[in-house]
Here is the input.
Amino acid sequence: MVRVILRRLIQLVVTLIALMTLVFFWLRSLPGGPVDALLGERATPQTRELLTRALGYDQPIWVQYGRFLKNVVTGNFGNSIRTGEPVMEVISRSFPATIELAVAAIIIAIGLGIPLGYLAARHRGRLLDNATIIVTLIGISIPIFFLGYLLKDWLTQDIHFFPPSGRISTGLGNTDVTGFFVLDGLLTRELDASADALWHLVLPAFTLATIPLAIIIRITRASVLDVLDEDYVRTADAKGLRDATIRKRHVLRNALLPVVTTIGLQTGALLAGAVLTEKVYNWGGLGTLITDSISGSRDYPVLQALILLAAVVFIVVNLLVDLSYAVIDPRVRVQ
Amino acid sequence: MRASGMQARRLRTVIAAGVIAALTIGAAGCAESDRDSGGDEGKAATGGTFIFAGAGDPKNFDPIFNDDGESFRPIRQMYDTLVTHKPGTAELEGGLAESWSNDPTGKIWTFKLRQGVKFHDGSALDAAAVCANFDRWYNMKGEAAQSQMIYYTDIFGGFAGSPDAVYDNCKAQDPATAVVTMKKYKGAFPGAFTLTAFSIASPTAMKQYDSDKVTQNGDSFAYSTFATEHPTGTGAFTYGGWNKATGEITLNKNPDYWGNKAKVDKLIIKIIKDENTRKQELRAGTVQAIDFPAPADRKALADEGYQVLNRPAFNILYLGINQKNNPKLKDLRVRQAIAYALNRAQLVQTKGPGGAAVADEFLPNTVAGYAPDVQKYEYSVDKAKQLLAEAGATGLTLNFYYPTEVSRPYMPNPQEIFTVLANDLQAAGIKVNGVPRPWNGGFKDDVQQFGKQDLHILGWTGDYNDPGNFVGTFFGRAKVEFGDASMTDMFTAIGKADATVDPAAKKAAFEQVNRDLATKWLPAVPIWHAPPALVTTKNVQGLVPSPLTAEEFNTVSLTK
Here is the structure.
């Protein structure tokens, strides 16, 4: 087991170095750099030159790369070009927002997905099954931003039921402790802030959950169907075991493996930044940070750190999923 | 109903445990709440909180290091300038200086300051403080800091030791009189003294928080805590913090303000980058005002009962003509043909935001120097074809560059504008190659640094009320954008007009310049003036739209 983890960690480091190099050169080959974005319409050629020199972009690309590598190794990701703050500060402000959203979405997806998938499998071919399949197809095929705008229009504009955007009401004056607004409200006893944050979480989490939900339903259903056909289930039934026991001990445990993989991969994808959902709901998480760092100004330092973060998250999640096989399936442990 | 499976039950246990833990922690009150324990919600009955939706992040709150509207919006509420504008107009009136005057050479400017004005930190606004600001800008050290002082470089030419520097010195003749001496006259004065970048900041606070420290770290700049946490001016609002996690900038009413004290208690600028989301927040009532609504939304919002406040137009959109690449464009007749070919009235009607008007000159009619009798180019395809034939330019093919991924107040929908103009040109027999370039990814470089285009659309919002700020900026010297190095008599005429000190003579000189621009030179074709609008909810009163996009919110009140 330890050997497995070690091997995977080495792979992680090698992958990250290769990725960072790729990103470094690719970002700098894009037309239009941070100098223009920083200066606006009124800049004179002298100002442009001043800024290029000040930022070190007039130096040869290898010098810039060397400086970049040195910084990454020492954990210095520099300052954001857009805001001037340390990159780590900018990211650590946005990360909790994405985590909150991703966790909420995954909870919805799992909480609804597994039961519905199981039920669809048990009622295969009947109304519930067919209805579930149709709903999941719709869920997967509707573009997220379209669904988001639709929900916003119905539930926040036509009737003012949910707030249209943001994580918390403007002017509420919530105290920021961890960056997880729901938790912060509990920690500081500002319970209205917690409730307000939860209320703001509903629409975005549902919008974001539609795809993972649809996928989890389908995979659970398929996996359960597979297992229901197995001989041991038929034996258990023939033995006269109660339905609930069969379900708990034999069906679900065995059907779980593919579902867990899916949940892991979906969580990884969500954590890497739900760009569209965050745009629609002005969420202020990593997804928003990514779009701000690309279209507003080519914020290289932030982009580099974000890509690195996304890669790390994905690889770590994958590793955890692989390790969880051993926990769930004893057959894997023996290897 | 069947119970959920094992996985779901385990999950439920975990959640339940988590909730119990959280509630226990909550009961213990692990962390301190930042809210005021008294709560000012009940105190001021008439005040309230005015929430304005901004479109982007400010850079920081030190006026001299900024050049964009999103940064100036909060800065303008916290600081004052020596000279300001009558609300809703571009006319000058006294700000921190009750009155000002200049000597006949235009080099010595005397400001009589208001009495009894204090900065937010309690220190006095006097002539010494004013001079401290001018000296600070002039003596700013370091390429990093200097590269961020865009307006200073533009107006004052250079820093200490530079031969281009316009500023000479500032003397505090007495506590209420500051005398600023320039090395030469610039037409930009006194209008430029209204620029928000030249707001007067507290020298005490600047010293305390090390305001001049601009450091470069890696690929970016870091500013002092004066700029990021302790901006200190004389304005109607004081700084209450910027919560970056929620995108809210909080400004509090300054009860000791020298002018009209703010009617609301709190002003929150909520940053919402998506235009659609801003509109939705307005409709949901979670913000009370938005800036730059999409032209398509204006009518809809007005119909729904929101107040659409039009700013008097102070910008210009033009079709730039580059004479360098295609020699035919050097011929005035060809450029005139282009002007005749464009149906600008129809463009305004179909694509212009509400209140847009065809432009016959490169500056709005509120600026002194606007000539009411310039030659107009009424739409005529026949005239265009005729002129092209005379110049031997029938069958001309031109590269037309236009920007994408951008929306400017003078150019809200570049792609659509390009399409209409290109069609007009095709109808006159000019073949057009459309070349789209992203605003931040090549358009400005290609057009203004390399001059790759034959035609392009671009524009400008005026910074202050001076004809030089429009005409001088575009045509005062040779520019790659227009490939006009040969038009030396144009540069000379504009330079002369700009150097005229006497206001009446300057007005007359610029009027002649504008007539000549239309008749003799025509380096570009003015298209339209497009007033950007603000939209507010019905209960917002007293918000005065400014042509310079320089609204001050101390006059705003909220009715029930």
Summary: Chain B touches chain A through 75 residues (CB under 8 Å). Residues 37-45 of chain B have pLDDT under 50 and may be disordered.
